Amino acid sequence: MVSTRRRRAQPGLFISFEGIEGSGKSTQLRRLATYLRGMGHRVIETREPGGTPMAEAIRQLFLHPPADAEPLTAPCEAYLIMAGRSQHIAHLVVPALAQGAIVLCDRFADSTMAYQGYGRKVNRDTLEAMNRFATGGLHPSLTLLLDLPVRQGLTRRAQDHQALNRLDRERLQFHTRVRRGFLELAEREPGRITLINAAHDADTVAQEIQTIVAGRLRPMRRVTTKRATSTPLAPPARRARSPK
Ligand code: ATM
């Protein structure tokens, strides 16, 4: 969790979306953004890996390495993720939060624990230390974990007509470990991570998410209204729309 001191210093709200492939988190993030903007909030949509031009370049390397490249080692994966995260936090997330925005991030540090920690079996204490180094200790205040059975997620993913990336092509056992990782993280941090049944239809999931987030907004609005109107948010670093 964000330390209390840090959270008080930042009037915005940092929300991450997590889940296995095919869980619908990107669609739900966009729907929540529309809902929040309709309420008059300043909303930044971003993603990891990625979110700034430099971090998007790292994303491309991470997900679609050159065809003649040697296989990525698990530590190399972790370093690439953390390198991008450091750029993203420093140049987009922290400035947006400081200006009172709600930052919606498609994947964040829980994905690193789930994919590199549980999936690739990288030492989780090492990942935590690397993550602290990359983020300075900033964590989302709220994480929405969209959960569904792995086979269902992979079927949805295969049907969405987006090119498969390096991790999509991993075996079923890998994705099963990733899902177990997410569920264990949710059990360990129930105050931050809210589990959502992503097998429900998209409207039901969107409604549930709106209710959860609305509950978190009340205390924030009291603190930020004045500042948000007097300090226009600088244009965020552009989120390059590269292939998945
Ligand atoms: P999206 O398809 O949700 O944008 O995520 C891209 C991939 O990045 C996703 N792979 N699959 N399949 C998970 C992977 N990823 C990690 O392995 N570690 C991380 O820390 C993050 C943020 C993403």
Q: Quick recap of the structure?
A:
With 244 residues, the protein is α/β, with parallel strands linked by helices. Helix content is 55%, strand content 11%.
Q: Indicate the radius of gyration in whole angstroms.
A: 17 Å
Which spans of ≥5 residues are poorly predicted at pLDDT below 50?
A: 1-8, 222-243
What share of the residues does DSSP label as strand, in percent?
A: 5-15%
State the separation between the terminal residues, measured CA to CA.
Answer: 29 Å
Total tally of structural domains: 1
Calculate the mean pLDDT score and round it: 88
Specify the helix fraction band: 55-70%
What would you give as the CATH superfamily? P-loop containing nucleotide triphosphate hydrolases
How do the strands and helices of this protein lay out in sequence?
Layout lengths: L3 H6 L3 E7 L5 H14 L4 E5 L5 H11 L10 H25 L3 E5 L2 H11 L4 H12 L6 E6 L2 H10 L12 H17 L4 E5 L4 H29 L14
Parallel strand pairs: 1-3, 1-4, 2-3, 4-5
Helix pairs in contact: 2-9, 3-4, 4-6, 5-6, 5-8
The structure holds 3'-azido-3'-deoxythymidine-5'-monophosphate.
Descriptive report:
The structure is a single chain. By secondary structure, the chain is an alpha/beta fold. The protein has a single domain (3-218), classed as 3-Layer(aba) Sandwich (Rossmann fold). The protein contains nine helices and five strands. The chain has helices spanning 4-9, 25-38, 53-63, 74-98, 109-119, 124-135, 150-159, 172-188, 202-230; strands at residues 13-19, 43-47, 102-106, 142-147, 193-197. Strands 2-3-1-4-5 form a five-stranded parallel beta sheet, with helices on both faces. The radius of gyration is 17 Å and the shape is globular. The model is unreliable at 1-8 and 222-243 (pLDDT under 50). Bound molecules: 3'-azido-3'-deoxythymidine-5'-monophosphate (ATM). 3'-azido-3'-deoxythymidine-5'-monophosphate binds at residues 21, 47-49, 63, 81, 107, 111-112, 115-116, 165, 167-168, 244. Residues 21, 47-49, 63, 81, 107, 111-112, 115-116, 165, 167-168, 244 line the site of 3'-azido-3'-deoxythymidine-5'-monophosphate (ATM).
